Amino acid sequence: MIITTTTAIEGRPVRDYLGVVTGEVIVGANLFKDLFASVRDIVGGRSGAYEGALRDARTQAFEELTSEARDLGADAVIGIDIDYEVLGQNGSMLMVSVSGTAVKL
């Protein structure tokens, strides 16, 4: 399955547009990750715990998107958009949302 942010794939014309597909994942922040991240914010440096959680959430969202596209019989998803939102009381949750157009090439 080809997944791209572009609206066309060079040398592969779109034959059919199958519809919009999405993948959303919401993850809660762990208390210990929060504690260590705030310490790291004070002393400087990157927060590996948050980076790992963000990477995992993004991977899961793309897996959902790909699965939905595959169910429609798509060969590719074009025009991918990735969004990140902070949700919940005090920003305690992170949402990763991906969307695009499933197509048959």
TrEMBL record:
TM region(s), chain numbering: none
Pfam families associated with the record: YbjQ_1 (PF01906)
Top-level division of the source organism's lineage: Bacteria
Family: Belongs to the UPF0145 family.
Protein name, as recorded: UPF0145 protein SAMN06295912_11080
Species per Swiss-Prot/TrEMBL record: Edaphosphingomonas laterariae
